[in-house]
Amino acid sequence: MNNKELIDLLEKTRHLDRQQWIALLESYTDEDRAYAAHKAAQTAVKVFGKEIFIRGIVEFSNVCRNDCYYCGIRKSNANCERYRLTKEQILDCCDAGYEYGFRTFVLQSGEDKSFTTDKLCDIVGSIKKAHPDCAVTLSVGELEYEDYKRLFDAGADRYLLRHETANPEHYRKLHPSDMSWQRRMDCLKQLKEIGYQTGCGMMVGAPYQTVEDIADDLMFVERFKPEMIGMGPFIPHKDTPFKDKPAGSYELTLFLISLCRLMLPDCLIPATTALGTIRPDGREHGVMAGANVIMPNLSPMNVRKKYLLYDGKICTGDESAQCRACLERRMESIGYKVIITRGDHKSYDKDSSLR
Hints:
By secondary structure, this protein is α/β, with parallel strands linked by helices. The protein has one domain (3-345): TIM Barrel. The protein contains 14 helices and 9 strands. The strands form 2 sheets. The protein has a 6-stranded parallel sheet. A 3-stranded parallel sheet has the order 8-1-9, with helices on one face. β3 (104-109), α5 (117-130) and β4 form a beta-alpha-beta unit. It starts with a helix and ends in a 16-residue tail after the last strand.
């Protein structure tokens, strides 16, 4: 089968086997990528219309206990100026975001153990009490099952935890020995079991990544069936062991967005900040490749430049209202509209959406 036939097969069956994935990834051309993007955009429009969901990110701590080799806020980075937001600051960000039209708040941090489960439950509960029509997404790393369950019971709706790679050997090349690939997989399984709308994802072009690794990632995504998939190109950070590694491919990232859209038509797929960092119009290209979510920053201006997972991150100097207005104009320029809604996955039980 040629590549267009493989793309057609994926669109029809939502499945390719490992050798078909490898063949497609090894030999795709710009023409193949454009073909996949066209089909993926059509698929997204069938499911979501020309509407783009918007999430407001609050990066509430850049303290992290982990030492991932690629990450700018890794615990060994002595050049990282650490910060933690207070509960009141986090709530203020959400209050302001609500006025700007955000109906999903994404609370993201390093694995900062000073934010205990009790504290996080209090914050989540306070947001839901103030804004019962909003969704809360958490992205705070690996926790115990009981912690995930308590946070869900406190009102958290979604959880983002990138699997990063489906290959245990590759995982070991990206992380120190005290971190476990199996632990990451167990956490993802637990999140699904509890009832979160769950997001996984990978770094495209991560150091030591092979075509076979990406094929395994796509096969994992098919099996796991996440409600959300976060994919962005690897971008090196100057204060990490991977500072001299090449950045991931922008074109491959867009291609993978398209392939994931064809494989999981209902999935929520963001056009990430990393795409916009590599190319000024990267988020627009992400949407035209099949993405349907954008995630501007609601964090206070004085901390945004401190939460740098990679070098060159955009929108660290924009006011939240300016950022939202800018993204609306960008989406309108390609024929899409940002809408004010929680933007839940279609399988989510609407009867329990205002918990």
